[in-house]
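debug: dumping io for the single-chain case to check the tokenizer round-trip. Nothing else runs in this session.
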Amino acid sequence: MKSIIIPQPNSPAGWQAYANSEAVANIPLQAAQDVNQTSVSKLACCPCCAKVDLIPPSQRIATFRGVFLNATTVLPHSMSRINVYADVLAFTDQTTIVAPNDNGTILIVSRVLTATAPVTITVPRGLATTCVVSIYASVLNQPITVATGDGSRRISLDQIGTGKVYSGVIVVFSPSGLQVEYQRYYPSTTSKDLQASLNTQLRIGLVQFWRNSSIAISLCSHVAQITTRQQAYALLNTQARALGQQLAGQAMAGQNMSYAPVLVLSRYKETTQSVLNAAFAFEYQFERFQDKAESLDTQIQAWNAMLSQAINEYNMRINMRNLALEKYEYSVKTATGCHQQFENDVFALELLRIAFHTGLNRWIFEQKLKAVFEILQATITFAVAVGQLCLGSPGGVGQGAAAGRQAIGAVLAAEKLAGQVNKVLSSGTLQTLLDCIEALGTLYPSVDTVVRTIMQFEKNPNINIPSTGDISGTSRGDADAAAIVTMAAWDRWLLEADDQMVFAVGQGIDGASAYQLALRKHAINGKQLAQAQAEAVKSGYEYVQAQMEVIRCSQNIADLQALKAGFHGQEAVYLEAKSMFYDRAMALRTNVVLSLRNMAWAYRYWALADSSINLDAQKSLVEYQQDLSTVIMELERADSRWASDHQPFNYDIASNTLPSNQGQSMINGIKSDIHTASFTLLTDKRFASQFVEGSHYRLNGMDPTLNGILPRPEAMQGGVVVVKLQITTSGIYSDIYKNQVFQFASLPQVRRCSYDLYSNGVRGATRDEPIFETVDHAEPTPFTQWKIKLLNPEQVILNGLTGINLKWKGRVRFDERRRLMHGIEEL
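debug: decoded output
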């Protein structure tokens, strides 16, 4: 089930294959044309006697709509107006001559303009009239030039397409020459043909969601850009964002990140089979409805059956919507907790920055180390910028972006110095991280506004839904999902910055050692925050999509009931109903795929391997049934790789042994106003504590003891004070198997721990046990961000706190290779 980002096609042949694929070709109502050159007299007694009237040139209008259109076909001459709405428009000739009537107009709205070589659009030589060609497109596969008929003037349309500010261009051809005016936005219109084209593109996007994320994101971005700032298209804009930003969030999180369902896999089997059964029943009736050999009565019977099933589906969608909202709200809590922790890290780093910066300025270095000096200075500047950007304060974002670019410029200059040594941190690493942070900073702040607005839509359909044309946070990412910067940028920053600081520590620069440790924690928890925010973007738009399906299902039911009342076999009514039933069938198929995805994710968390099933909304239902059997069989076989069950472990880990001096910061945290200690463990051996010799670490729990605290005499009852602690995880987890790191997002774990504390500071009996075996829920890994909060600080004396003892209990599969590698690294 591992997803690989495939680039979009970039040629007419590639796009033709895409349009001809069964998944796209099966979408109903995807094409239409109306070429109005002649009219037939309506007074004729029969077609044979009909009088054909030529329509005056000023009234000749042609409209073409389709997935893949050829420019030579859809740009006829001698028309007063031509409208072209396409997903892909192919220029098969290097020169395309347009020849509308005097004052004629051509409007082209196409996501992709493709060709095998550079294209020239021109008019006939000796043009004696004026005409206007408007072109709006998101992706250009080849350069496009417009030219006068005699070729005396040529203008390259190089300001539209991927990564460009403008959405379109208006070209005026006249006897006096050529004029070009770029357009920032798509034109405001309520054209039914445009809306039908956008509906088709969203249907394709839903199919490509599982097949090709680059095409899906591009489709969603195109629809979002056209529909932004147009209230009539607010729901289309929301649908596009819901699909596209889920994919953008997934691409940003990286291929190794998936959701970890909180229940054991067996609990998802029944749900998947249930939605499969519903899809089977609906599809049977849909096939009856589409069979033209069947009688009208049979079609109406199938119509009634599907309508009844759609009503049942509506209730199921409400339940799915509610579950999606719960998941989103948990992800927001995770992101909020990570934000608070990162804010603390930023403050701690700032205190140490001053000392290190002073020490760095006092450092006397040889000329060959000038670049290192500049890079270390830039490291300080960039770390400050990261904090400002990630915390998202209105003034800080602008300052952070400027400081980040300043640091990148300084490192670039240092890289150009000749004869330099000990340079580790690169400008490329800083640039990719800055791109990642800025893209996420575009997506994350707006998701909650959209969620809260959509929640109110059913009660108030006239509510103003905020719109945007931004899907991935970057224009390049909107055209190519592979261009979206992933969370791996944080890993490179952590590695290179830490290695660069090793040099500073080795040189004995004052403040370097403490700053290095704080910078590590800053980078580790910065990535946790970014991962949590990316997950919130995904889960937020999962909810939006689920809510939109509730809305669409309700609208389809009402429309189908109205259509059925007047249906007597009319082809137009039949086709309209067919498109709605297609949407309901696709919605049920999507349910099946989502259920299978939950099972595949649960398998991935359990086995630390990807399921072999291929998620696709266009498979046959029989294939889905086979996929269900496959993932169940894979789970059964997963444990057969081992000769025994997981081996239990009991570890006692003192906080002062945790990596990166986190023990001291934990003491400071408990003593602070918020009375919360935090630490983060990673699969990287430098940051894994004792969890370094195996994989599949799964915890029954962690039990902390605050060492050195005493009860307040006035708070004691029965000779003790009950110390009350709350233990939480961030909800972002990882694990490792065969040197591959697996990342997971899930619900945060929250457990209560309480124990008796005697007057001499000795721990007594445990009251609330934080360590216990689970039956229906999946256990967490230790590799996450942990928080320990003292709930009753007013009842204890914290002055003598010397550390926190962490008692861990769980299961593991020991890996001899990891143990040996760890031993070698320690030598």
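debug: round-trip ok. Residues 38-53 have pLDDT under 50 and may be disordered.
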